[in-house]
Write a structure and sequence with these properties.
With 243 residues, this protein is an alpha+beta fold. 18% of the residues lie in helices and 37% in strands. It contains 4 helices and 15 strands. The longest helix is centred in the middle third of the chain and has 20 residues. It is globular and about 55 Å long. The chain starts with a strand and ends with a strand.
């Protein structure tokens, strides 16, 4: 029941034709999807599944599927409240068109790429993160003071630098020999498929990531540090928002 995760190769793909392979208490499973499932700190996608007769089922979220032998790519589409009657009419083998809420996803992409830029601005281990459509929250493991104005200025410089953003792959074995690439303390590299996806921001950053990103840093747009606080004795929390 492995799902083909189309967003891995093209984060700008907004819809795809798919076949229902299972329906259970988790939601609707498809043979392929453009929906990114919650993981790596990034929120799952919302959108719709449209049947051949035009019936639309609202999808509130996408999560990693839980079943024996599931891989990190296996996603389940979680129907929104009130969609139960429509879901009850679905059947395995049925064709659907899966379409994401693009405006929401694009904000995820911009903020997720911005969070990687932050790893270049503040070279500390990341002890927690959350990427939503409204903000990116990062917890940095450091006791050093962080200057809001300097962070915003450096971030604006990197965004305006129009750095190319691309993905590349290395094997699980290669990843195991390059622990310095891992910046996050709480999120493990997306391993388990035999290869690991790296996100490279040209001349700025390189680290494992399975999330969705923009193609160039200039797409991120203007940002501001909405919150900067001491989360614990050894952790500083920073929240980014669109300016």
């Amino acid at each position: 029941m492995t799902t083909r995760a189309l967003f891995r190769d093209d984060a700008y793909l907004t819809q795809c034709d798919a076949t229902i392979v299972a329906i259970d208490e988790q939601g609707v499973h498809l043979d392929q999807t453009v929906f990114y499932p919650l993981g790596g700190g990034q929120a799952g996608d919302a959108g719709t599944l449209t049947l051949a007769d035009g019936t639309r089922i609202e999808i509130a979220d996408a999560r990693k599927a839980k079943f024996e032998g599931a891989t990190p790519d296996d996603a389940v589409h979680v129907p929104a409240p009130g969609q139960e009657a429509l879901v009850a009419q679905l059947s395995v083998g049925q064709k659907v068109t899966a379409q994401i809420d693009w405006a929401r996803r694009y904000r995820h992409m911009r903020l997720h790429t911005a969070s990687h830029l932050m790893c270049a601005v503040l070279p500390y281990p990341v002890d927690g993160c959350s990427i939503t459509a409204e903000y990116a929250r990062l917890d940095f493991a450091t006791v050093e003071p962080i200057e809001r104005e300097l962070v915003e200025a450096r971030l604006a410089e990197l965004v305006g630098g129009a750095h190319a953003v691309a993905t590349q792959w290395i094997t699980d074995e290669e990843m195991a020999t390059r622990p310095e690439l891992v910046r996050t303390m709480s999120v493990k590299p997306p391993m388990g498929l035999g290869r690991v996806r790296l996100l490279k921001i040209e001349g700025v950053d390189l680290q494992p990531c399975g999330g969705t990103h923009v193609r160039n840093t200039e797409e991120i747009g203007a940002l501001r540090v909405a919150k900067l606080e001491k989360k614990s004795a050894r952790t500083r929390r920073l929240v980014l928002e669109f300016a």
